Amino acid sequence: MEFTEPALEYAEIWPLIVVFGVACLGILAEAFLPRGRRHVVQVALAAVGLLVALVGTVLVGTNLDEVADGEARGLIGGAGSVVVDGPTVFIWALVLVASLMGVALFAERRLEAGVSAFSGQAAALPGSDAERKAQGLDHTEVYPLLMFAVGGMLLFPASGDLLTMFVALEVLSLPLYLLTGLARRRRLLSQEAALKYFLLGAFSSGFFLYGMALVYGYAGSMDLGAIDAAVRNDAANSVMLQIGLGLLLVGLLFKVGAVPFQAWTPDVYQGAPTAVTAFMSAGTKIAAFGALLRLLYVGFGADRWTWQPVMWVVAILTMLVGVVLAVVQTDVKRMLAYSAVAHTGFLLTGVLGVQASGELAEGQVTSLQAVMFYLATYSFATIGAFAIVSLVRDSSGEATAFDRWAGLGKRSPLVAAAFAFFLLSMAGIPLTAGFVGKWAVFTVAMSAGAWPVVVVAIASSIFAVYFYVRHIRLMFFDVPEADAEVASVTAPSLLTSGTIAVGVLGTLVLGLVPGPLLQLAADAGQFIR
Amino acid sequence: MNDVNAYIGLSAVLFTIGAIGVLTRRNAIVVFMCVELMLNACNLALVAFAHQHGNLDGQVAAFFVMVVAAAEVVVGLAIIMTIFRTRRSASVDDASLLKY
């Protein structure tokens, strides 16, 4: 057998290479630079790398060739393993914007009086002398870790075969497991969150892998296009295909935090440093939904009568569990985590609204377009909300318990108003981005005949308004008890306030004029098959 | 087809043992070993299917899985080590500060 060198389409995949290259440079910087200079260099490297990749993504996106009679644009590169098409480019841009906001939050040093929110030395025992000595230090390894996670997030929705998808899944997960455990304060919680995230994540990727093996056994190839062809020809034993697809879905639904695989979400969101929570709540969701869409639409599009009923049940359960458990929370980060679970349910409502292009009315929003738009609206709101959570502090650091937030609106009206605005967007109140996103996913699910799911979705969004508004009331109208310690807002540097401003602006603009972004999502076209 | 059935059966048995181990064992290290057993069961299935289909995709995938598993060991043991040093226990039941 002769080895043939694969031809790589550098012109299309270079944003990906930039991100991975910068991550490797970051490791070199970590090894060779004196400690004092690392912070500035690492932040600059990460920010510039992400910006260059973002510009590259836009350039690549504008130059994609049309294929399949103009229904899709782009190409299948890397010997079939990387697909750069319209949806890929759109999701890349979303991930990169979310990561840029994430880097800004990572680099914030004013809140902890001159050091970052990450542990000075992760190996030092909590409460030991070593930890006290490391107190003034900064963990700058977080930036290369973030870049590797971003690289995985970019590769995940672009993967053209199951093996690439698995590798991307791990590349995005492993750095996140570590980042979760690196909090400077409340280190026991942080380490416990990392342990839970890691064990459950590894468990679920084992399921993904076995699903991959079974689908490979069915189709004789890991390529999504070849799997699609095998499904259409009804190649062999379809029981193997169905078990395989089920196991693949376990892995992906775990990553997006859908019921019954949501158990890690609140613990990890609460235990992780808030900057990491902000970054991964947006980035992981965008990337994993991109991969889920590609797997279901491209690989198993012909078999959608098998997976759509499953997704109906998962979507309904996810929305109900997310909303009901969010109501009983007393911690802001956990409440936002359960609200993230509910949003996963709304996104799945969009995913199961897939229809053949012939069934769609002229100019109708496709499910792909609706889900991508929803991801954009959700990212701005969630990053902004978690950025604000990192500002609200008392003597022991971030104050996430509800009673500390009482009356915050009187002490810091601007910050409380921004938080209220993010909550209203998550609740889907008109004139915010969340409303347009919800409207888009509900209409596609409705037109695909999934009305029971839409009924549950509307009911749970109405129910969800209750706990969002309850929190707004807590901030603006409740008076804290006389001797209770309350949290106040610590003034951040431009990094965090800029991130919050971008979040507010994004949420507002997408709510008032959603047209351009919806059009952009429509122009992205379909996945290349 | 028939000549690989035994291997697929064995891999399914190994995978199930691994999954049951993850769910029932209490020590984080043992839980993690069970995850590794699941990954190796996948490798066996991949190689067996590669033999059945007569192409190399599955065998190449098995190499990737080994590399990924090695990376996962590094990250996983680092996390388990830290938590053990802090708590003097690697039991997954003891780590219970985050609830509900």
Report on the structure:
- The complex is a heterodimer of chains A (about 525) and B (about 100).
- Chain A is mainly α and about 525 residues long.
- Chain A is about 70% helix and about 5% strand.
- Chain A contains 20 helices and six strands.
- In chain A, strand 4 (about 390-395) and strand 5 form a beta hairpin.
- Chain A is globular, with a radius of gyration of 22 Å.
- Chain B has about 100 residues and is mainly alpha-helical.
- Chain B contains three helices and no strands.
- Chain B has helices spanning about 1-25, 30-55, 55-85.
- Chain B is elongated, with a radius of gyration of 17 Å.
- The chains are: A mainly alpha (about 525), B mainly alpha (about 100).
| Largest interface pair | A-B, 43 and 47 residues
Could you tell me how far the N terminus lies from the C terminus of chain B, measured between alpha carbons in angstroms?
A: 48 Å
Tell me, briefly, the overall form of chain B: elongated
What kind of sheet is the major sheet of chain A? 3 strands, antiparallel
Which radius of gyration of chain B do the C-alpha atoms yield? 17 Å
User: How many E strands of chain B?
Assistant: 0
CATH class of chain B: Mainly Alpha
Fraction of residues of chain B in helices?
over 70%
C-alpha-based Rg of chain A, rounded? 22 Å
- As residue ranges, the low-confidence spans of chain A are none
SSE sequence of chain B, one letter per element: HHH
The average pLDDT value of chain B, as a whole number, equals: 91
